[in-house]
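Example record

One chain of 519 residues, shown exactly as stored in the release files.
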Amino acid sequence: MDPIFSLGIQSLWDELRHMPAGGVWWINADREEDAISLVNQTIASQSENAKVAVAGMGYDLRNILQLEPDHGPQKIYLFSMPNHEKGLYFFSRDILCTIEPENYLLILLCANNAWKNIPAANLHRWLIQNHEWTKYHKCTLLVINPANNSDRQSSVLIGKYRSLFGLASLRYASGTHLYDVAWWCNDRGVSAQQQLILEQQDGRWQLAKQEEASVQPRSDEKRVLSNVDVLEGAPALSEHWTLFETNEAMFNEARTSQAATLIFALRQNNQIETIARQIHTLRRQRGSALKIIVRETRASLRATDERLLLRCGANMVISWNAPLSRCLTLIESVQGQQFKRLVPEDISTLLSMTLPLKLRGFQTWSTFCEAVGNMVNNTLLPPDGKGVLVALRPVPGIRVEQALTLCRPNRVGDIVTIGDNRLLMFLSFCRVNDLDTALNHIFPLPTADIFSNRMVWFEDNQIAAELVLLREVGPDKWGAPLTGTSDEKKIINAEHDGQTWRRIPEPLRLLSEDRGSAS
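Predicted C-alpha cells for this chain:
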C-alpha cells in the first residue's frame, strides 16, 4: 500500500491534510519564518518509520530544522541546493543520485521569492515534469515557497490542477494567519476554496478555536461588500450590506467570499492598477460566482482603464456621472450572473496591453515620433483605439513655446512636443469624441483663445501616414521649452480638480518698513 503523508497543521481535517504518494502539493507563504515553521511541523507529523527527505534552496538546513525527540521519523535526508534557477530544474535528477525516492516524502523549501523572475511557462513545464516524476517513482513532493507576493504566485498556478494535487497559501494579515486552500485532492476527495484561521500554540500550527469544522462554507450570494463612498454618505441599505472605509479593507474581507457582490470605489487615476490587481486576485482565486463592480466616484477613467478592469475580472464599471439610484439599479442587475470571460493568469500581460506608454509631458521631436510609432505598431492594442494625435497652431502674437507653458498633461501616456510652429500632442487611448474634454483638462484657458488651427488624426493608418511627414522635419525646425520652465509648477500655477481649473494659492510675506532707518 502506498504511504499517505500528513501536512504539519494540527487539527486540520484529513480532506485538507493528507498527501498520498504520487503527486505534487504546493504551499505559498507570505513570511519566510512561517514557511520554515511549517517545514518543521510537517516533519514532526510523520510516523517514526516514514521516509523523509528535505531539500533547502540556499538554506543551511542543519541550522533551521528543529526536530522533536518524541515526534517524527528516525532518519531524514538533507539536501542543499544553490539559490539559482538551474538548481530547480535539476532537482529531481540530483535526488536520484543519492536516494531511491519510492515511498518518500520530499519537501522542497524554496528560497525567498525564488520563482519571482522565472517565466510562468518555465514553471508550468517544471510542474508537469515533476508530476510525472513523482507518479513514476511513487513519492510525494511538497513545495513550500516563501514569497512576498503569494497572490501573484497563486494566480499563475490556479489553473494547473492537472499537475498539482494541492495548492494553498499561508498568509499573515493584521496579526492573523490565514490558510487559504485553492484546492486539495487526496484519498478523501477534493476540497476547494477554503479559508481558515490558524494559530500557533506551543510552536504548533492548529485551527483557531472559532473555526467550524465544515468542509464547504455556506452560500453568501446575498452578501454585499462595499466601499463606503459608493453610497455617497447613505447608511447600509440592509443587513446584507457591509461598508468599509478603504478598498484594501474590503479586499481582505472579500478573500473569503464565494458568490458575494463586491463594490470598489475609484477616486483617482493612480488607483487603477492597485484595484486591477485586487480584482485579478479575487477573480482568479475565488471563482466566477463573485459579482465585482467598480464605481467611479470622480472622473478619472479612460477607455483603456475601463477595458483593463473588465479584463481583470470586473463584471461592471459604473461611471462617475451615474446617480445613486441608477448605480443601485446596475448593482441589482448583476445578481445571479456567472463571470464567463477568460482572465489571464498573469496580470502583467494585461498591464502590458493597456499601459505600454510610460512617458508624460514634453518630449523631444524624435522621442515623440518614436513613442507614437511604437504605440501605432503595437499589435496587442485594439486597432484604431490607441489614441489621438493632435496638431495645434497658436494664434498670431503667441509663440509656440509660450503655448507650451500652458500645456499641463496630467496622465501617463499623454505626451507633447513642439516644432515647425506647431504644438503636437498624442493622447493615448483617448477617444476622438472625448478630445475636447481632454483638452479642457490639459489647458487652463479655452483652446480657441490659444490656438487658431487644429488638426486631428485618430485612425492607425492616418497616424502612421502623418508620422512619415513628421520624421522628415529637420532638427532646425524642432522647438524646446522656454528657459526655466522645466518644473511643471513653474509653467502655470494651477491644478485641475476633475471639473475645473483652480489657481494654487501662493503664500506672500509682507515686510514692514523700518521707520527708524527711513528717517
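Notes: Residues 24 and 328 are 46 Å apart (CA to CA).
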